[in-house]
Backbone:
């Protein structure tokens, strides 16, 4: 008997006095107020990391509804997302000795696929067969699929029967799954609420890296152009240069003397 067209009033209170628009929420002195219908959601983006928050629903547990909330208090994580989920359930008054079980599905995140089918299995602690509300059991097991915003309810289940609910695609394909109430016991006249929230955000690519310019190696200036034949002996620059100079001068002097002699001989022969 849940009214999917009903508006539910929510209040988000931050641990810091922020004022201004943050995504889908507008805060005044750290408080934002808004309404949501079945299957709707709002996201406050770019909130400072490390601040605390509290989310409350005005109509929680009123008018015959039973409210289950997860993540309604916490701290904004650095680079992450804090999530608060509220499930309001209302079923017909069951007969004595019987209760109900409701399973809901929510998909969030910028990359979440709201048209995707998610496969669920409800396993009871008794060998029950037949159709109970929206679920059909065989040997105490019911299988079905849900999309974002959908739910199924098993009504008229015997009281004191245990149950466990699993999702086949939980924490796969890049999704992060948060669940509540996945196991418990059917209470007399009560309803067990099971909530699954699958979240997936687009991955932010790393910033491009700037290539570094390679450094050109420098040629040492003190490397000798003509290294000595014997590397173990350092070159004798002063003595070797002076020796070569005196040798060249001696050769030139001898050549000059020889030329002078030849000239003198030839001259004497001419005179004779």
Residues:
């Amino acid at each position: 008997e849940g009214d999917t067209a009903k508006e539910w009033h929510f209040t988000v209170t931050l641990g810091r006095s922020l004022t201004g628009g943050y995504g889908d929420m507008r805060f005044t002195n750290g408080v934002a107020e808004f309404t949501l219908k079945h299957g709707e959601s709002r996201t406050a983006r770019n909130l400072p990391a490390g601040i605390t928050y509290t989310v409350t629903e005005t109509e929680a547990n009123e008018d015959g509804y039973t409210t289950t909330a997860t993540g309604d208090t916490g701290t904004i994580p650095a680079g992450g997302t804090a999530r608060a989920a509220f499930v309001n359930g209302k079923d017909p008054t069951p007969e004595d000795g019987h209760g109900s079980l409701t399973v809901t599905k929510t998909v969030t995140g910028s990359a979440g696929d709201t048209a995707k089918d998610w496969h669920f299995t409800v396993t009871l602690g008794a060998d029950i067969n037949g159709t109970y509300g929206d679920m059909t059991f065989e040997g105490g097991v019911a299988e079905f699929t849900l999309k974002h915003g959908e739910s199924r309810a098993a009504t008229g289940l015997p009281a004191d029967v245990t149950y466990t609910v699993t999702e086949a695609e939980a924490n796969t394909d890049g999704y992060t799954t948060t669940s509540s109430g996945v196991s418990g016991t059917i209470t007399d006249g009560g309803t067990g609420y099971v909530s699954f929230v699958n979240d997936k955000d687009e991955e932010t690519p790393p910033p491009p890296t700037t290539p570094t310019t390679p450094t050109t190696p420098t040629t040492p200036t003190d490397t000798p152009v003509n290294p000595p034949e014997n590397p173990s002996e350092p070159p004798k620059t002063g003595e070797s240069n002076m020796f070569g100079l005196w040798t060249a001068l001696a050769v030139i002097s001898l050549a000059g003397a020889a030329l002078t002699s030849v000239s003198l001989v030839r001259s004497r022969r001419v005179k004779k």
